[in-house]
Fold this sequence. Notes:
InterPro entries: Hedgehog/Intein_dom, Hint_dom_sf. By secondary structure, the protein is an alpha+beta fold.
Amino acid sequence: MGTALMFGWKDKDTGESPAMAESMAVLDGLLITGQGGLLAGTSVASNFGWQPVEALKVGDKVLTFDHAMQTVADIQRETVTLPAGLPAALRPVRLPEGVCHNRRDLWMMPDQGLLVECEAALDALGDPYAVVPARMLRGYRGITDDLPGERVEVTTLAFHQDEVIYVEGGLLAHCPVPRQVLDGADLLQPTLYDRLDGAAARFLVNCLIDDDDDHALGCDPADLPNLPMRPPRPGHPLAANPFA
């Protein structure tokens, strides 16, 4: 179910979010699920340079962590109402200025996955990289839940496979491939990134807090657009010039 519907905002005539209706038509049975997405104003590294996520179109290319430039296959846009009494678990998450080289406060939807790199993930998973929902990062370097306003515009990007993209300087945001909503077997297909939630994600974040790890989230934007600071994962070399 799309974010707008989960928060109760619906079109007066059709009873559903116009953005959701558009997305359903484009995806033909596919859905981008969860309370993820990037709020309007969030910059994304694209073949046009840093672009606000709301300016991106299907067919544009976005810089990914593992696969250089990849084409945006689908975009879901929604207007979300955030009532004052919204429970903390459903509120957007505020990343204070500087927590990931961001030059201003940045908000993420609570279920938006973010890629972290740390020793705890390597010990537990055999891979130093893992995806955790933004809401699980509360308490790390001042990250907390917050309300950026009464209504926000949310954009969710989809590619032909799971991708992690560069946003707002060097933050790494997970964009899972949409799944067939009527095909349970599709939901069991393996994904490219280990996504942690619940106790596993909390343990990982507690390790980051205990170690005061200030390099786990994102990379320095000074290293973009030429090359990301993070080295490519084994088997997934980045192009020498991803913006070529």
